[in-house]
Write a structure and sequence with these properties.
The chain has an eight-stranded mixed sheet, sandwiched between helices. It contains nine helices and 13 strands. Helix 1 packs parallel to helix 2. It has a single domain, classed as Vaccinia Virus protein VP39 (Rossmann fold, 3-Layer(aba) Sandwich), CATH 3.40.50. With 264 residues, it is α/β, with parallel strands linked by helices.
Length: 264
């Protein structure tokens, strides 16, 4: 995957990592997973219009929740995070943002969150950049494994959790690897979700997509499940690099321009 835009990242020692966006800053040194392209694209691509209750499952540093809070100015945005250090960092990042009065980070598993009666059928948007490695070699770092591997939140558990907490007309937005695409498509349809939007992500026009974004609704009928799907392919870089610097595509810049400082 191509490099993440880093308009204003101040990195001295690893414990002093600061990512500065247009309206907020994010620290992620206490998180096993740092800010990456998948998270930025998912947060800038997913639908937020008219959505007032939003939750990010496995929020890490809170970057997705913060970007969505900027886009959805009337929404209350929650982040749910199982790993204690990441949850604390997300809470700190949210508290320091201009959106602090309508954000909260919760230290809890997605499954526990969904089991609480107050969260049933509540959310207009459930967003997740989930731990999707399955059967891959693991790191010596338990926190990194928790963030990357799906033992703590399998695809089936994720879909069941979303079903529990989504409103009938709500949406589920995910980032997912292409090599597990058929599994997502099959299990989602079996559990009553209908694909509404789909975006393949490739490094350049010459690369095969490695990731994709998808957005799902609850389907009340077979007819609804077969509605037309909005599809696109997003190439992160449009031309060859110049002096090693990525030349980002117009679509990539369009999505991230509201957040990245050097894009206007």
């Amino acid at each position: 995957m191509a490099s993440t835009p880093q308009a204003e990242i101040k990195v001295g020692k690893s414990e002093n990592r600061l990512v500065q966006f247009k309206q907020f800053s994010v620290r992620d040194e206490r998180c096993a997973m740092k800010i990456g392209t998948d998270a930025l694209l998912l947060a800038s691509w997913c639908s937020v219009d008219s959505m007032l209750e939003i939750v990010d499952l496995g929020c890490g540093s809170g970057i997705i929740a913060l970007m969505i809070a900027q886009r959805a100015s009337q929404a209350r945005v929650l982040g749910v995070e199982l790993e204690a250090n990441a949850a604390k960092q997300a809470s700190s990042n949210m508290a320091a943002s201009p959106f602090s009065n309508r954000m909260e980070a919760i230290l809890q598993s997605a499954q526990q969150f969904a089991s609480q009666s107050d969260n049933k059928k509540k959310f207009d948007l459930v967003v997740c950049n989930p731990p999707y490695f399955h059967g891959k070699p693991k790191s010596p770092d338990p926190a990194r494994n928790l963030a990357r591997h799906d033992e703590s939140l399998t695809l089936k558990e994720l879909l069941m959790t979303a079903q529990e907490i989504m409103k009938l007309n709500g949406r589920l937005a995910l980032a997912w690897p292409m090599d597990r695409k058929e599994q997502l498509m099959q299990e989602s349809l079996e559990m009553g979700f209908a694909l509404a939007r789909y975006c393949e992500i490739a490094g350049t026009t010459n690369h095969e997509p490695k990731r994709f974004l998808s957005e799902w609704t609850k389907s009340a009928s077979v007819v609804e499940a077969r509605q037309p799907v909005e599809k696109e392919r997003l190439n992160i870089e449009s031309t060859s690099r110049i002096s090693g610097k990525p030349q980002h595509s117009a679509r990539y810049k369009e999505l991230l321009a509201p957040f990245v400082k050097d894009w206007g």
